[in-house]
Structures are given as structure tokens and as C-alpha cells.
Amino acid sequence: MKAQRVGSRGFLFTFEDPYKTNMYVINGDKHIFVCDTFLGPDPIKEVLKYLEKNGVKGKPFVVFNSHYDYDHYWGNQCFKESIILAQEQCRLNMEVEGENDLKEFESHKKGAIELTYPNTLFHKKISFVDDVVEFYHTPGHTNDSSSCYDYFDQVLFVGDNIEKPLPYLRISNLDDYTNTLKEYLTRDAKFIISGHDDLMDNYDLVKSNLEYLESFGPGKVDRTKLDKKQRGTHYINLTTIGHYFKTEGNKKEALEYYKEAEEILQESDKTEQITKLKEKITAIIKELEE
Predict the structure, then answer these.
(1) What is the extent of the structural domain holding 42?
(2) How many domains does the chain divide into?
(3) DSSP H helical segments within 114-195, as ranges?
């Protein structure tokens, strides 16, 4: 675990196993705010020990889950008696996906997991006036994604809405996502914290993610400017959005997304994994063309 101070009252905790993930803690006047709880009780115990050693204690905890992905809330069980905040759709998503995620990602558990869902829900936003901290709905990475803004230190915690090098698209309404990133630009934050990237002191990644979103669509993104990792993310995004259109019965739109995904596979190195993906995409395209 890596710990670093942010502003006058923030603590950023970063874990590298099984992949880089951030937790953020704000030592407010009335409450201690915990933004996301990672993968279980073991890392939470480390965090709490560090906080107590640094004099952060004696106030009630308020836990915030930025969205329903398992790696952002498996540590909730350590705060059962506290307020656990999330956007109202977040708990519904957790209830649908929670047990399956627990089985699928069992190897990621950090201690014995007892699924603990948010107990306090908000629709648009909830504010803690005495602590000048606000939590608000910012659909993007997922439909329930929300963010935290600390007005005192001007720190913006965005969960997985910002990612390097490109955002992962998990909702079909991209207007919501672009509007969220545009709203971030109005915040004038001194620091930006995302779920899986280094601490940011500028808006460069927000702007590049927004540029990608605004240009996203079949044939619209200049793939010659994408490196191997970016092409991989772009491929995933194309198939995700294509699947949404396919599910909705919009075969024409879906076909355009899947055909560009197929082009990316044609440009990729010939590996067993790529071959299997080609077969899968070809079968989907054939089905859509019938």
C-alpha cells in the first residue's frame, strides 16, 4: 500500500495487486469520508491503522461507493455501522451483479468477503455542509457512476469515469458521459483522483478522454493515432456499444460497430486469442447481415 497526502486533509491510498486501484479519504471537520473500499477487509485494516497513526480518528465515517464494480466496494463490510453512500441505481446494480462477481473474481478477494451494500442512497446529489463535501451523480463509466468534490481542498474524485489512456464505455447514452466530463471541467479542481490512475494536478486526461468520446463512432476515430493498448480499448468499446444496439434490435447500427471491431482484429498480430475473437465477431456479423 502506498499512502500520500493530498491537499490539507486528504489521504490517497494506492494498491497495486491485482491492479492499481485507489481509495481516497477526506478528514473533514465532522466526518471522515472514505471514497471506495477496494477488495476486502485486509486492505481496509491497513488504511484504518495508517489513519489512526496519523491522528485521523474520533469522528464518524461516511463511506462512498463511486459505482457498482466489485473492486470499489468489497471493503464495505468494515463500515456496517456507518453511512454507506451511493447513487440509487448503484445498490440495484450491486444486488444484480454482486454474487456473480464474488464467484467470478474470487481470486481478487483480500480477506473473507461479506457483501455489504450502500444503506443511504441519493438521486442527484447529497451534501455535507459542515465538511464542504458533495457527492453527486455523474453517469459515465456506468449508469450509476458518481463523484465526490471536496470544496475545501478543491479535490475531485471521479471513480472510473476517467481512465488512461482511453475511457471504457459501459453505457449506450454517450451524451451523458460527455456531459459529465464537461461538468468536471467547470470544477476548477486542483487535484483529480480516478479509480486506477496516478494523482492528477491538471485536466489533461479529462480533456483527452472527452475528445475520444466526442469523436467515438464507427469509422470516426483515427486509429492510426492509437497505440496497441488504445486499439485494444477501442475494440472493447466498439463491441460493447455494438452489443447494445444488437440487443435493442438495431441491426444496422450494430453492424457498423462490429465491422470496425473486425477491422481492428485484422490489423492485429495473429495469435490464438485474436483468432478466436475473429471467429466470434465474424459469427455476429453474419447473424446481423441475415
Answers:
(1) 2-215
(2) 2
(3) 174-185
Within 13 Å, how many C-alpha atoms sit on residue 61's CB side? Answer: 23
Q: Phi and psi of 23, rounded to 5°? A: -120, 145
CB 14 within 8 A of CB 21: yes
Identity at 26, one-letter amino acid code: I
Is the pLDDT assigned to residue 173 strictly greater than 90? Answer: no
Tell me the sheet residues that pair with 85: 64, 120
Cα-to-chain-centroid distance, residue 19: 13
84 and 142 in one domain? yes
Length of the chain: 290
pLDDT at position 31 over 90: yes
Give the helix ranges, DSSP H, for the chain. 41-53, 88-104, 174-185, 204-215, 228-247, 251-267, 272-289
Average pLDDT, the chain: 96
Nearest to 232 by CA among 163, 174, 140, 181: 163
Q: What is the pLDDT of residue 97?
A: 97
Q: Quickly state the pLDDT bin for 172 (edges 50, 70, 90).
A: confident
| pLDDT per residue as tens digits for the range 186-198 | 999 999 999 999 9
Please check whether residues 262 and 153 belong to one and the same domain: no
The Cα–Cα gap between 165 and 207 comes to: 11
